[in-house]
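Below is how a single chain appears once it has passed through the pipeline. First comes the sequence as given, then the structure the pipeline wrote out for it. We keep one example in the README because the format questions we get most often are answered faster by looking than by reading.
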Amino acid sequence: MPQTMRAIEITAPGGPEVLQPCTRPVPVPGSGQILIAVDHAGVNRPDALQRAGNYAPPPGASDLPGLEAAGVVAAIGPDVTRWKVGDAVCALLPGGGYAQYALTHQDHALPIPDGLSMAEAAALCETFYTVWTNVFLRGRLKAGERFLVHGGSSGIGTTAIQLAHAMGARVFTTAGSADKCAACEALGAERAINYREADFVELMQAEGGANLILDMVGGSYLPRNVRALADDGRLVQIAFLEGPKVELNFAQVMMRRLTITGSTLRPQSDAAKADIAADLLAHVWPLLASGRIKPVMDRVFPLEDAAGAHARMESSAHIGKIVLKV
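Resulting structure:
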């Protein structure tokens, strides 16, 4: 095992250019942890928030960005029973994925589904953990319900469309171009709404309202989401690209018995994340292995060009997931 590794660190809060190559010590797994020799690492919006100084790592986590990866188990810590050295895994990470080696809890790693490459496997965990938690556990989506997900061409969006469609929901989404709308409909969306040309509120009201909305925009979308919901509808908030503060008339929430909730994944306990992993293994991994759903891949960047990967993500030009080849 080498003593040092290549990694990408955040040199100061700022734009993509603050992501710079560095050399770090290879981390040592503690009790219940595995060390992964990273083959590919996923790039996600929370990485950009951390880079900008707005999303601090939890206590004890690496300060390096990177919340998901795929690779091979390189070492195991005390009390590890689920994995052995040499096992191929994809994993949710507390941080540190932009590196040759990364640590995670043994229960936050999953086997790579049959037929998926390392690059595709690296695009799974952050997105699928998030969608499963917020759409099916917190949002309680059921077959036959009308589901609206904003940002349908994002990693979260492409995952949510496929999973909701596979579970029998009627899926609606928003996207910012004709090409993105077409991609969303090819994944199973009944209607993809170009938000630059049409009002999603009017269109959802014409359908009877959304039973569930998954939103990462926030800001001005919050009161519009409330109007787009059906009576007894649920809104789940997972990010605030437009900002977290807005004026809202709660009389509508009360009179129409609406539920507004939300969550973030990274601060949740090891036990909570292990429960999500177990659900994914039981209910979602068979869909991936059978090919019924598949991660939508946008572009692979070399680790040393993490700045370029972030610039593409923040341009919103991508469709699906961006990953780094380590």
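The radius of gyration is 19 Å.

See the next section for the split statistics.
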